[in-house]
Amino acid sequence: xxxxxxxxxxxxxxxxxxxxxxxxxxxxxxxxxxxxxxxxxxxxxxxxxxxxxxxxxxxxxxxxxxxxxxxxxxxxxxxxxxxxxxxxxxxxxxxxxxxxxxxxxxxxxxxxxxxxxxxxx
Length: 121
Description:
single chain, 26% helix, CATH 2.40.50.140, 121 residues, alpha/beta, elongated
C-alpha cells in the first residue's frame, strides 16, 4: 500500500472514531430536574411521573400538553408538538427531551416507560 493510501485510510479511520465517540457521548445525556434543565438552557432530558388528568391534546394547534413531576418534586407543564404516544396512558414514567421556555418545558421527544409485563410472583 502506498504512503498516500495509508494516510487516506488513517484519516478515514480517525473521522469514524470521532463520529463514534461524539454519537456515544450524546447518547449518554443524563436525566436532570427542571431546575437543572433551566440552568443548562439547552436540550435536556427530564424524567418524571405524569399527572394523567392534566393530559390534553389541542387538535387546532396540534399540541399535546401534560404536567410532569420530576425527581425533585417540581411539576411543570410539558408541551409537545404532535399527538400523544400510543402507550402514554399506560406509562409508569415519562422522559421529556427538550428545553425550558418560561414556565413550560417544550419537548422535542417523549419517551414512555411502561410497566414490565414480567412480574415476580
